[in-house]
Amino acid sequence: MRRLLCLGSATTGFFLTLLASSFVVSAQAASTTSASTATCPSATLSQPFARWGDSSSYELVAGGSFESSLSGWTLSGGAQKVAGSEPYGVTGTVGSFSLGLPAGASAQSPFTCVEAGYKTFRFFARNTGAASKILVQVVYQTPIGLVSVPVGGVTSSSGWQPTPAMPTGAALAGLLMGGTAQMALRFTAVTGNSAIDDVFVDPRMR
Fold first, then answer.
1. Count H helices, E strands: the chain?
2. Which of helix, strand or coil describes residue 98?
3. For the chain, what is the domain count?
4. Which of 93, 92, 152 is nearest to 125 (CA)?
5. Residue 97 — pLDDT band, cuts 50, 70, 90?
6. 140 pLDDT higher than 70
7. Residue 205 confidence (pLDDT) above 50
8. How far apart are CA 92 and CA 86, in angstroms?
9. How far is CA 77 from CA 11, 100, 103, 137, in A?
């Protein structure tokens, strides 16, 4: 079974430059006030990727197991909940559903609070036909509107596998947005038919 490969990740310099230019309004506003110590609300943490050598604690994104309501998720192009789940039971039990992404489909998670420590995110993926590729983006709410930044691409195999850790950019976003920021994750099936499951964000500083 082939490993998932993270392809075409944005370079750190490009990623930070783009976010910085997008958040310039917030930076100017923040410079007129004292440094913020805002933090995100406490969340339930687990170690879903421990068997793959990743002992970090992660927070499940709202609706990210796809076992219940997809309230807050934005779906287009035929993205929908489908039967079948990753078989490892990383949420505590093996589920029954995942999110299907036919070619051209897109899904965006609900916005969630992130701060400097929320450095990476991971999820599970597989293809449901020919080799497939998923474009992954982070989306931030800013005073000048939504800003989306591509952070990588995932080429999946026919079996469920965890993706590599991908950067959120939350360290810079939190700093320029006064300590915390609102981030969503967007998944787009560029080629082939894919499915994703159990989407987690890593709050390393917790």
1. 3, 15
2. strand
3. 1
4. 152
5. very high
6. yes
7. no
8. 12
9. 29, 11, 8, 17
In this structure, is residue 157 part of a structural domain? yes
- Residue 157 phi/psi, 5-degree rounding, is -100, 180
Q: Which domain holds residue 175?
A: 5-30+74-203
pTM: 0.84
> Is the per-residue pLDDT at 21 higher than 90?
no
Closest-CA residue to 63 (of 54, 72, 53): 72
- Quote the pLDDT of residue 162: 96
**Does 54 reside within a domain?**
no
Residue-averaged pLDDT of the chain: 83
Contact assessment for residue 26 and residue 143, using Cβ atoms and an 8 Å cutoff: yes
Q: How far apart, in whole angstroms, are the C-alpha atoms of residue 195 and residue 126?
A: 6
**pLDDT category of residue 24 using cuts at 50, 70 and 90:** low
Q: What is the pLDDT at residue 16?
A: 55
Q: Is 148 exposed, middle or buried (0-12, 13-18, 19+ CB in 10 A)?
A: middle
Amino acid letter for position 155? T
Where do runs of H (alpha helix) occur along the chain?
Answer: 12-22, 24-30, 170-176
Distances (CA, A) of 11 to 104, 136, 145, 173: 25, 14, 23, 16
Are residues 41 and 69 in contact, defined by beta-carbon separation less than 8 angstroms? no
Domain with 126 in it: what CATH number? 2.60.120.260
Calculate what percentage of the chain has a pLDDT beyond 90: 56
